[in-house]
# Entry
Amino acid sequence: MMATARFLAAAGILALLATTPPAEAATPTLLPDLRQAPVGCPGGWRGDPKDCKAWDVCMVADANAPNAPCVTSGDIRAVRLRFTSSEENIGDGPLLFYAHRDSTLFPTMSVRQAFQSGEHGPIPDSYRTAQKSSGTTAYYEPAPAHLHWHLLNFEHFQLRTPSGSAVVSDRKNGFCLGDRYDVPDKTSLEHRVHEDEQPEAKLHQFLIYNMCGHQQPDATDVTEGISVGSGDDYRYDVDFQWLDLTSVASGVYDVVNTVNPDRTLIEAGWYPPEANNPEKRLRYYARQFPLVEVDATYYALPAEQTARAWAERTPAGFTFNIKAFSLFTQHPTPVKAFPADLREAAGSAGKARVYLKDVDPAVAEAAWDRFLAALGPLRDAGKLGAILLQFPPWFPIGRVRREYILACAQRAAPDRVCVEFRNHTWMTEDNQAETLGFLAEHRLPYVCVDMPQGYPSSIPPVLAATSDLAVIRMHGHSDKWTSKEISEKFGYKYSDQELDEWAGRIRGLSADADLTHVLFNNCYRDWAHVNAQQLTARLTTGLGVRPAAPAPGA
# Structure
């Protein structure tokens, strides 16, 4: 989904949009949420500091040994602060990683993160099917107390001064993750694992005994993870589970352990802890922004009951923009994305993925009927905005394509559509006037874009209002625009300077339209949400505009 903040301005209503995580998609992705206990607490923090005694100061004679015995006299070569660390998953879905290497000639494995799709829904079972490439790796730790594969950069330890300056950083930041204990507040977690035959329960049983390829240095695949309601702790007496105090002066210090320090692992974060399920997240979201764009409808036809829930969970005046089903915009569409009763007809060409030209027109008509019918609850509630028609890079300018755009607009009527291009021929210097004139003639909103330049799909950042609705989509400027990984393709955070410049340009565009939507599609971490809120602040400062208030009791 995507998001916005709405304003009443001199030119009309201005709406800002930020992409949200897929938590409110028709089939929501369940994200993990990590927390760490204070050091020295085996089995996590249980409310009593007296339970956190799993630490000591250990003097050793062999400074090079990963786990030398502690001594009290003699030739002391190093002083170590040893402590137990604990990490827990209190989110909606499992924390799950698959590590893989093609050959034992490679010393490390690449890592992908997997997510559960929907409550009790499927969980990827391999590196190949895991959804996201991770920025970390796995390596085999040969120290005697380990002898298994570690996920690198999962957690960092530091000794800091009271002012926050780092004095010592850890040697060990790799971990073998599994379900070693139940968190103290497990029963309060909505998506905690129950002992049944659901996919998350089966994964939990595996993770209880997971040893991450113990004594298997030649392994090519390893699984690591922590289930919802479970935690993993590393004892203070295992190899490298310490900070070196040898050169540290006497004084008062803090031991700080930070899980997911580089934010390379996807977990919940923008929403407050109490927004711990899809309904609560949407309600919270709708108090921050008055518009959301649903992109789950691109991947599968929406369900009417889902649209009804969206309408019921948002305040009066809230708006849903809907991305058109991939078949309608001539993108490849998996046959399995069709409703069950249409799959046989949709797959008659014998392909797993089909284009519009591959399916019988009656199948396409049936898909349109169901797509529009499912949006009925939003339409009836006055909350249906525009249907986004985002056409692919292989959709160049031409008479046939213009006629198809009009056909889509007529098929969707009386619902309105907006049009985004990904083929540069529509907006070359020679064709810009023709394209914008065509859209204006038919009162179809042109979707202005900010995106990386220099690619066949690049559209210049031309701002133009071709109807009473103006739309801008902010895709960022990632240097990995051609990547198939969403986190890489859209992993870009707008700077203050860029937002300052865009605020001025947006004000100018909004003067030519009654309603302007600005959508942030830099959907990595919480960057879209943060950038939308930052832009909102710029557009509401000193301009005599005010945020539109959500409905009472929302």
Summary: The CA atoms of residues 140 and 528 lie 36 Å apart. The chain has a mean pLDDT of 87. Residues 496-510 form the longest helix (15 residues). The radius of gyration is 27 Å.
